[in-house]
Specification:
It contains nine helices and two strands, in the order H-H-H-H-H-H-H-E-E-H-H. The protein is mostly helical. Helix 2 packs parallel to helix 4, helix 6 runs parallel beside helix 8 and helix 7 runs parallel beside helix 9.
């Protein structure tokens, strides 16, 4: 009986993450109402559902998870949801996270903030933003009182890319 319950729980969590990643907002809301944990780490990256939704640029899932009490500041491997969204250049998700309590002043273990992530970009094969400038995202973060001081590597790489938002930073 325990094995059967474990299989049911595994299938439920897998379908929950699937719904989150697919942007199936109705199913995400239904599963949250049935007790799905919006903060439970899942998958090979051990990401929270919120990180899965951001990774797939599913703003509807992000909103549903936040409505279901997902923690907008819960870090995985020291990267917060706001840092991930900023690195991908998902400005609408950055705005939503900030409106729902994401802290733009948090730093990862290397001292990088969401502003650093916006300037540096991501090297994810699904969304490679390493050669882009997240200037719009930087402006949104600064309007939310994000630190204006960035890491030296961020300044160097942003300068090489010609990021206009560097003029707003120290």
């Amino acid at each position: 009986m325990r094995q059967l319950m474990a299989l049911v729980l595994l299938a439920t969590s897998a379908s929950f993450i699937g719904a989150v990643r697919d942007g199936n907002v109705a199913e995400v809301r239904q599963m949250l109402a049935q007790g799905a944990d919006p903060n439970a780490p899942e998958g090979g990256n051990n990401w929270t559902p919120l990180l899965h939704a951001i990774h797939k640029n599913q703003i509807g899932s992000v909103a549903a998870l936040l409505d279901g009490h997902a923690d907008p500041n819960r870090a995985v491997n020291s990267m917060t949801p706001l840092m991930m969204a900023a690195g991908y250049g998902y400005t609408p998700i950055v705005r939503l996270l900030l409106a729902r309590g994401a802290d733009p002043r948090l730093r990862d273990l290397d001292g990088f903030t969401a502003v650093d992530y916006a300037i540096l970009g991501m090297t994810d094969l699904d969304r490679f933003t390493f050669f882009s400038c997240g200037d719009d995202t930087v402006r949104v973060l600064l309007a939310a009182n994000a630190p204006r001081t960035i890491q030296r590597n961020s300044r160097r790489w942003g300068s090489l890319k010609g990021c206009a938002s560097l003029s707003l930073l120290r």
